[in-house]
Structure formats: C-alpha cells, structure tokens
Amino acid sequence: MFTYDDAIAVLMHYASKLPVKPNTQDPQRPARARALLGAMGDPHLKYPVIHVTGTKGKGSVCAMGASILKAQGLRVGMYTSPNLQDLRERFNVNGVMVDKDTLTTAVQRLAPIFERTNGARYPEVMATLALYLFAQHNVDVALVEVSVGGRLDATNAVYPAVSVITSISYDHIHLLGNTLKDIAWEKGGIIKPGIPAVSAPQAQEAAEELTRLAAERGSPFTLVGRDVQFESAAPTIEGQSVTLWRAGSEKDTYTTALLGAHQAINAAVTITALRQLNIVGIDVSEQAIHDGLRSVVWAGRLEIVGHNPLLLLDSAHNPESAVKLSEALEALFPQRPRVLVYGSKTTKDIGGTLKELLPLADHLVLTRSSDGMTDDPTHLAAIVREVGYNGAILVEPNLSLALDKARANAGSAGLVLVTGSMFIVGETRTLLGLYPR
What we know:
Strand content: 15-25%
Structural class: alpha/beta
Number of domains: 2
Number of helices: 15
Shape: globular
C-alpha cells in the first residue's frame, strides 16, 4: 500500500539530487517543468494563473490575492515556498493545505512521470505537483509564487493571466547577479509577450530594466507609484491602510490585516494585479477587495503569537526585510526590553541583516533550528561581534530553551522577537502548538 510517508519519500528523493553546478541556476528547469506538465495533461492550462516574483513581499501578495479572490466566491489555489512547518502548506486551496490522502494519491499517480522525465529535480517536481493538484481541485484561479529568480524558475513553465513583480532588492546574488539591473532582468523573466505585468515601486535601475523588458515583449506594464499612485497611512496594530488612485480618478482606501507599512505597497500591488483579471473574465468587486484584505492571514510575518511578554514572529532574512521589520517595531511595538532570538542560513547576508536589527535589541539570543538547516550559533556570535555589537550574547542551540531564556529576559512587559530564518520561525510555531490549516 502506498502511504503518505511513501509520498514524502518520493518527493525527498528529488530534493536529495544535487544541482547541475553549485551556485548556478539550472537553465533546463523550465523545460523540464513543461515536459512534466505535458505528461500530466497540461493541468496548468485549465485555470488562469497569477505568477508572482520579487525579492520581498511575494508571499504576502499571494496571500492577499488568494483571500480577496476567495471573498469573491472563487475557488483559489496558492503555491508558495518554502513552507514553515508542513510541506503541504505549499499546496493551498481556499486557505487550507491539501489533505494527506489527496497528496498521497497525486504523488502515487505522478511518480512514474517524475521518474521517466530525464533529470527531474525537486523544484520542478514540486511546482508541477502543485499545478496538478489545483486542477484536481477545480480551482477557478491560482496564485503561483516563484521560488528563486524568475527566468529559470520551475514555475516559469506557466503562461499567466498576469505577471507580478514585488519589491526587488539584493538576495540570492550568487544566482541572480550583484546589481539591481541584473536581478531585475532575472525576475523580469516571468514577463510574457502580450500578458499584463504589474510591478511594485522599484529602485531606478530595476524599474528601467523591467520597463525595457515589458516594452520589448509587448507586455502592458503597470508600475505602482508611477501609473497607479498610493499613499500609506500610519501603521497601527489593527492593520495597515493604503489609498490608491489613478490620474483623474477618485481615491479609494483599503485596510489589510497584515501589519507594517510595507504591507501598504503589497496591498497596492495586489489590488492593481487583480484588476487585470478582467481580461480572463474575472471581475473583482470592491467588496471582495475590502473583505479579503481585512481577513487575510499569513503566518510568520509580523505575527503575534503570545503575550506577557509579547511574542512576535517575522521571517526577515535579508537586510531589506530587516529594515521593514525594524520600522514596524518602532512604529507598533514600543515594549521594552526587546529580546532578539535569531538564527539564519549560512547563505544569507547575516551581517547586513543584523546591522539593521541589533540597534533595537536590548538582549540577543542566538540559536538554530533542530533540522540543521541553519548556521551554528557560535559562528553567528562571531559575526555579531564583527558588525560591532558589544552587548551580551546568549548562545543557546536548543530553540525551545532559547525561547524560555528570551522570555525570562523580556519579563512580562517586554517583547521577544523571533526572526532571521523561516526554519526558526516555523519551528517556533510548532513548539507553541500553532499548526497550519
């Protein structure tokens, strides 16, 4: 009998395969994904897709978009990566991850296709499995998040109804390039001929590159902040508001349940992108936009999971995300003392991220996830000293003990912030008994 554990073992088999070359992208990945989809009967052609890339905000835009479309009365698929706690989080339909039996049946059916597709690897196996599952669930629309880059990502096998590029900054530079222009070129690889594209406000060189790519491909291009204007309201603990308008039109104000001023940009991008869906016969109502934004949930992003002391989770893992997190802390969470519980993968800009976070911390606890996916905290301690932090450092490799010690340092009136890696945030949620839907 083929079990759920067997299904996971099949998927992990592909995860264990090494990349073609370390620190390079695989140029054959989209082609292999297209081959897999073809062998599955092209499930991705049975519903419109919103394809989302960027450096920051991809997941938030997908979560907002899915919540709004669900409020519209549609059945919505959402593929995001990586997952926080359970692999099935990546395969989400109407806010709920697929059940074990459904995933098991799908993997059992698709395993022979995976096996006979030469060179198939984990990214394209997971992406095409998601697209297959969405077809099995008869979704009306799907939001598909790029894993890394865009041009050579497995998800770039889709032919979307609209392409979305969220804020671009420096991440995965060993794969995507060390200039914003280069990174924008990779991200802009999801822009398709004749298909509308929507971008968040970008630094000048990134905006110019995306504009050039869209013009070259005949893609109607909307740059939020230029073609659609927006204003952010002051952040509050109740949610983040944003006002949108085009030249000559009335202003409309919306509020999302996701916290932080940066979510105003993500909401503006989401609303602008969803309004492009009328080309595939989906007209999103104003009521659905308001209701969906107010009810959106996105775990591990400025998520309050405890009180006395306040316990906050945020998966900021690069300097730009750390800046947004720091701004949100200053605006929304004045609690003192603040205790930072931090762990990170070795591939991230640890020093740059800590430079943004450490000035707001009264105490620092360095830890790691139990799966070994994050760096040795003694190595992190050396980096902390290199960036000029002179305060006390507590090194506690056991995350559960690290949380206990952080709470003790914070006291009932303080704040504990767990951040730096999605692996750390996900394991914290599990330790707290918070499970994905």
